[in-house]
Write a structure and sequence with these properties.
This protein has 265 residues and is an alpha/beta fold. The protein contains ten helices and ten strands.
């Protein structure tokens, strides 16, 4: 479902701030893989997701989604392949628009726009059914402005929008990092539920090593723009946080020094 072939990206080339964010990175995800991504600050985790989404072009390499080479496609054209949830609950939705209007935009992602009347009654019925699954009472608030929702409600809505039209690939960029622990747990449960129900292929960047081990069937660890550890299946299920810390030291030649990830475990 996803093939990343030797992509590299360097920012601020030729300046004192030059930084190689991705270094000949390659990764293959099969259809239905749920891969968690961990690594220290500046490891290239979010940069990799931005490269897949087409936020900016890569310097070299290829990105292929479900057999289609999207390397040269602009971000808006890749939207037809992707669902994405960001770290900031304020991203991914239109705050001034109602819940049903945001869902309508998500439902039409990647499709042709027409001059037909907007939201039909049968569509509203679908939205109520989907929102009721969130367990947040949003099914009775279809016309409420999204900007009035709490961070957790908004993130759950964004997750629903990202999966409303089944994406080829779901990108989750630390999507629970800005939430309190109870709300974060709820959003993670919804994430697992949506992925399982639709058999989605997903990449989830997280700073929480316990979550990275508990969720998904694949785990990769990044360091200095490349993948230094790739584990799947039964081997992944047996992992402990201490194993990941030890592995990082072995393959990187140094200690894991990321306060956010250490404090989260």
């Amino acid at each position: 479902m996803l093939e990343i072939k030797g992509i590299s990206k360097t920012f601020n080339v030729g300046t004192v701030n030059e930084k190689q964010a991705l270094n000949n990175l390659s990764l293959t995800l099969e259809d239905g893989d749920f891969c968690t991504v961990i690594g220290g600050n500046g490891a290239g985790k979010s940069t990799m997701l931005n490269a897949i989404a087409g936020v900016w072009p890569v310097d070299e390499g290829q990105i292929i989604i479900d057999g289609t080479d999207v390397t040269k496609l602009p971000e808006y054209k890749r939207a037809a392949f992707l669902g994405r949830v960001f770290q900031d609950p304020m991203n991914g939705t239109a705050a001034a628009m109602g819940i049903e209007e945001n869902l309508a935009l998500a439902l039409r992602r990647g499709g042709r726009r027409t001059l037909k009347p907007g939201i039909r009654n049968e569509e509203r019925k679908l939205y109520r059914e989907m929102l009721s699954k969130l367990g947040l009472g949003l099914e009775t608030r279809l016309t409420s402005k999204v900007g009035l929702l709490s961070g957790g409600q908004r993130q759950a809505l964004t997750l629903l929008m990202a999966t409303l039209e089944r994406p080829k690939l779901l990108l989750l960029d630390e999507h629970t990092a800005a939430l309190d622990p109870k709300t974060a747990r709820k959003v993670l449960e919804l994430t697992q539920e949506f992925v399982d129900e639709q058999k989605l292929t997903a990449l989830m960047v997280t700073h929480n090593m316990k979550d990275a081990i508990a969720m998904g069937n694949r785990l990769i660890m990044m360091h200095e723009g490349r993948i230094i550890y790739n584990v799947a299946g039964e081997e992944k299920k047996k992992l402990k946080v201490s194993d990941l810390l030890q592995k990082f030291g072995e393959v990187s030649g140094g200690e894991f020094a990321n306060d956010r990830m250490m404090l989260a475990n």
